[in-house]
Amino acid sequence: MHTVLIDDDFDLSKIAWSGQCFRTRAIDDIGTYRFIAGDKALELRQLQSTGECGAGEYEVSCDTEEWDGFWYVYFDLARSYRAIREETCGKSEFIDRCINSGKGLRVLNQQPWEMLITFIISQRKSMPAIASAVDALCKHFGKQIPGSGGEYAFPTPKVLAEASEEELKACSLGYRVPYVRDAAQMVESGELQLQELASLDDDALFDELQRVHGVGKKVANCVCLFGYGRCSAVPVDVWIERAINEDCAGVDPFAQFGSDAGIIQQYVFYYMTHRKQPQ
DNA sequence: CACCAGGTATACG
DNA sequence: CGTATACATGGT
Predict the structure, then answer these.
(1) I need a surface site. Which of A75, A89, A104, A186 has the fewest CB within 10 A?
(2) Is the CB of A181 under 7 A from strand C?
(3) Is residue A55's beta carbon less than 7 angstroms from any atom in nucleic acid strand B?
């Protein structure tokens, strides 16, 4: 338990409900959030604000070593989101509106395995439904995380590869059960080496991921962006499609942002899913 | 209680 | 090649 100073955009609420991590919880009513990644859990809250967009002092539940070695990377704190906001400002009225609404967002660096399974599950599910299915999967198949307040780690490839169809079905995976099993078996057998894929270029990584049954363009892009830090990857789902068609006159607004396109996509996704207006 | 959800595989023409 | 359709199940 110690405090850290974060000198950049960092809005826990926006990060938590931005559709990239589904195991986050609001712990109390004073702004404490719990994030779970792999076999680690972290609680944190803002103590003091020193700037806009959530910059300031935060109390974190881990030690300095774990913060510097893991969570600093997880929260992508080496990147200046303020700089990205400033650089992109003024290029598009719509994008400006999205970024303004999502100020404080960050794109998290999560684990490829967890992203692969989570986004296979995500297809044709609402965000609350994704969260409950992933939760059920972790409770059924994950190890308890000591001192985490009863949280479970994300299950290993081995455990999911050996799980029965009935056990997986009990986690509300529906027709995705064979997808999850196949993915787990490919990883467990070594047919798909997630660690090795990190050395591939963006296009090769994108193609390799789609060898998995149930992984198409959208899920592959999510894994590239959220699991491998490929910030040029733009997952296009119904919300982004809607933004392109209804707010951008059918013209893709992301390509112009090059290696930051995936980050801009996240602001747009946040805007589209949080704006008060029935489409 | 219909309707839709951070899509994809498969079957057509 | 492009377009149409089935898919399981939970939130709202």
Answers:
(1) A89
(2) no
(3) no
User: Which nucleotide is closest, CA of A210 to its C1'?
Assistant: B8
Tell if A274 CB is < 7 Å from nucleic strand B: no
3-state secondary structure of A3: strand
Phi, psi of A170 (to 5 degrees): -65, -10
Identify the residue whose Cα has the smallest distance to the C1' of C7.
A175
Tens digit of pLDDT for each residue in A97-140? Answer: 999 999 999 999 999 999 999 999 999 999 999 999 999 999 99
Side chain identity at residue A274, one-letter code? H
CA–C1' A124–B7 (A): 6
Distance CA A50, CA A104 (A): 13
Nearest one of A123, A118, A125, A116 to A220, comparing CA atoms: A116
DSSP A149: S
Task: Give the HSE-up count for residue A125: Cα atoms under 13 Å, Cβ half-sphere.
Answer: 22
The amino acid at residue A229 is G
A126 closest-nt by C1' vs CA: B5
pLDDT tens-place string over residues A203-215: 999 999 999 999 9
Residues of chain A falling short of pLDDT 50: 278-279
